[in-house]
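Researcher: Structure for this, please.
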Amino acid sequence: MSPTTGTATEKTTAPGVVSTAEPVPAVSPAMSTVSAVPAPHDASPPSVRKVRSTAARFRHAVRRLPYLLVKGATKSVAIVALLLLWETAPRLGLVDRTFLPPFSEVAHAWWGLAADGQLADNARASLTRSFSGFGLAVAVAVPLGLLIGWYRPVADLLGPLLEVFRNTAALALLPVFVLLLGIGETSKISIVVYACTWPILLNTISAVRNVDPTLLKLAKSMNLSAPRLFQKVILPASVPVMFTGIRLAGAVSILVLVAAEMIGAKAGLGYLINASQYNFAIPQMYAGIITISAIGVTFNQLLVTVERRLSSWRSPADS
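Model: Predicted structure, token format:
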């Protein structure tokens, strides 16, 4: 049409020339805003991320497996060597097998005691007494140790009394406990409480008194009140040394109880060992001793785990 009409225009190209121009689509403001927002780092569903995390942990465990096997084998060498020596020495006549039977016979006797329920019944009686006395000792000795270590007047008042009783062996007082409390459960639990109190109490006092002075100066410079200072500085810094005493008390609770159960008891691992000795059932006697050792090791490892959880601030967790 004529340009003068103003109704439409046509754009022509020369013959034989192909136009490469393409229409550019219009971009709306909304689309430009969306394109400007960066995509999230991981837009996967939670289930997919959980699967990936599980797979990563599995690969990490597989990579650590050889190291764990070597470490476990290294720690087991001494135990295996002891058991082999125990098995071969009586059979070769190096020791009298009447008084030290081979380990296989002891293991067979242990299995027999476990099968007929004697081992479980005696172990349950011993653990009830031991854990009761140990728990009471922790409940009494930890607060008392913190109090004595933190307040000097209390330490001056109770110090001489502590020095008298800390040097008195628990087993030396066993006849006194039996005379005053009888041969029942009360005397046995009481002797465990007495024996466990001193390692916990003395280590707690030492832990509070030996807190790093630099930490105390920094905390006081922040104008912390005495309760907050005790809660945020003294108590966390005392946990490692305090748990050293608790672990010692855990071992003492079993050892002292076994000695107490040999006097006037009708159940318990100490009673089992003593009765087996009198009846000349030597394999059963060693089976009871092995059970006590296994319980002691397990209890100690449990306390080590609790200590690591409470004092995880000391060092980063193992990867």
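Researcher: Any notable elements?
Model: The longest helix spans residues 46-91. Residues 1-40 have pLDDT under 50 and may be disordered.
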